[in-house]
Amino acid sequence: MEQLILATSECDLTQQTVCAPADVKELFEYRIPIIEIAGFPITRTFVLIILAGLIAVALMYFGLRRKRAVPGRFQTAIEGLVGFVKDEVAIGIIGPDGVKYFPYLLSLFMFILIANMFEITPFVNFPITSRMALPASLAALTWMIFIAAGFKRQGFRYVADIIWPPGVPTALKPLVGVIEFVSTFLVRPFSLAVRLFANMVAGHVMLTLLLTTAFVSIVTIGEIGITKGLFGFAWWLLGLAIFLFEIVVILLQAYIFTLLSAVYIETSINPAH
Amino acid sequence: MPYLFALAATLLATAEPVPISEEATGGAGLLLPAPEELFAGLIAFAIVFFFAWKWVIPALNQTLDARSGAIKAELEAAEAAKHEAESLLEDYRSQLAGAREEAARIIDEARESADAVKADIVARAEAEAEAIRSRAREEIAAERERVAAELKGQVADLAIQIAGKLVAESLDVERQRALVDRYIEDLGGVQ
Amino acid sequence: MEALKGAIALIGYGLAAIGPGVGIGIIAGNAVQAMARQPEAAGMVRTTMFLGIAFTEALALIGFVLFFLA
């Protein structure tokens, strides 16, 4: 609570419209170690990331533990999510071969979903996917998997067809080849990581600024007067709207990350597409 | 209410002390992955992945198998019930058809026997009527004969009486005439 | 100049968001049309729409990242 008071004391709504920190990056860089083990820092984000993995495992475990033919409510929900990834993403996008990639896509979806959920989880309220480490490592995994799948299925032709694309006029081949190479091997992982990262950063910034401003304006209503207090109420309403919107974004970004991973794998194993 | 909660929680989270990052505030500090987080992320993802691979897939398959088994059993039971119902229905149908035939047969028989009875009654009635008529005719004939015979006797008696009287009183025409008239009057009196 | 850097980065991000904004609008609008014409294909159209939006959105997000880099 001292930190809370600290934060509110830094914000003077008689001077500012919105309680923004001097640098928005301050909202994200929590790199204070809780403890240090042999010089290796265990930070809050570190703990949250491990926790997200454990929660994802626990959800799947408790959802699918009882293999009942007639499922309960929770089992139906988890089975719905798992079945959605299997039918719509793995098999729906990749085709019959998708079953092989289903465990990867499922763990991707569940892990990102829980990691994003921390954005709106009370007392956590920090999307760990807004730290670049998580999106970057997952995008790198997808990158490696789709390249490996391409080589496994097509051999060296996989790269050759990208650099020297068939079915393109010879004069254009170098140009198209370079563009394709860059877009496949560089832009894909980068945009995959940045999409998730940027969405969560934006959501976290909006929620934090709006809800903090609203809270501070309610707490300090005696100093700032009733007119500004009403402004604070408006910020609060807007914050609620964005809170609901963020729920959609959380689901959608987890889905899109999984979907795009599936699409990338599909394009490397089915080239004539 | 949950929003208030979320609001307070947001504050708690965002009010964490801000550390001084190595790159300070300028530049790509936010965009570079922190090594300890990369490590944590890969560990956590590996846990999830191995769990999904080694546990979720078999569990899911088992669940699906159990479900399809249950559905299959149910379908089979339904199929059996359907067959039974069909055979029962067939039975009922044939029974019904038999009953209908039986009824038709009974009605036909009844109609036939009724027709026979009717014809019999009519014939008997006709015969009786014929008998009554012929008897009446015979009676009439007999009566007529009897009357004729009686009349003959009477006429003969009268003729004899008239002849007797004529013989007794045959004097003159005047008297004869008077006699005849008297006789005729007598006849009239007889009648 | 150093003081203006943040402002210029903001303007740059705003410019970067115009194209994707228009693009996402077109994608979503056409997807709605397609779904209205063929409701039975709605599932496929929705998936493709999300894919298209994801690719288009990437441009705006790169602008967002450049804003942080600036």
- Main beta sheet strand tally, sense and closure of chain B: none
Strand order of the largest sheet of chain A: 1-2
Distance between the termini of chain A: 57 Å
**How many E strands of chain B?**
0
The value of Rg of chain B in angstroms is: 68 Å
Question: What would you say this structure looks like, in words?
Answer:
The complex is a heterotrimer of chains A (273), B (191) and C (70). Chain A has 273 residues and is mainly alpha-helical. In chain A, 72% of the residues lie in helices and 3% in strands. Chain A has one domain (2-269). Chain A is globular, with a radius of gyration of 23 Å. Chain B is an all-alpha fold. Chain B has one domain (37-190). Chain B contains three helices and no strands. The relative contact order of chain B is 0.02. Chain C is elongated, with a radius of gyration of 16 Å. In chain C, 87% of the residues lie in helices and 0% in strands. Chain C has helices spanning 5-37, 42-69. With 70 residues, chain C is mainly alpha-helical. The longest helix of chain C is centred in the N-terminal third of the chain and has 33 residues, at 5-37. Classes of the chains: A mainly alpha (273), B mainly alpha (191), C mainly alpha (70). The interface between A and B is large, with 75 and 53 residues.
Summed up:
Chain A has helices at 2-10, 44-64, 73-94, 98-117, 133-154, 157-163, 173-219, 221-269, and strands spanning 33-37, 40-43. By secondary structure, chain A is mostly helical. Chain A has a two-stranded antiparallel ribbon.
Keywords:
heterotrimer; A: 273 residues; mainly alpha; two-stranded antiparallel sheet; 72% helix; C: 70 residues; elongated
Task: Summarize the helices and strands and which ones pair or pack.
The complex is a heterotrimer of chains A (273), B (191) and C (70).
Chain A: H1 2-10, E1 33-37, E2 40-43, H2 44-64, H3 73-94, H4 98-117, H5 133-154, H6 157-163, H7 173-219, H8 221-269
Antiparallel strand pairs in A: 1-2
Helix pairs in contact in A: 2-3, 2-4, 3-4, 3-8, 4-8, 5-7, 5-8, 6-7, 7-8
Chain B: H1 2-14, H2 35-168, H3 173-190
Chain C: H1 5-37, H2 42-69
Helix pairs in contact in C: 1-2
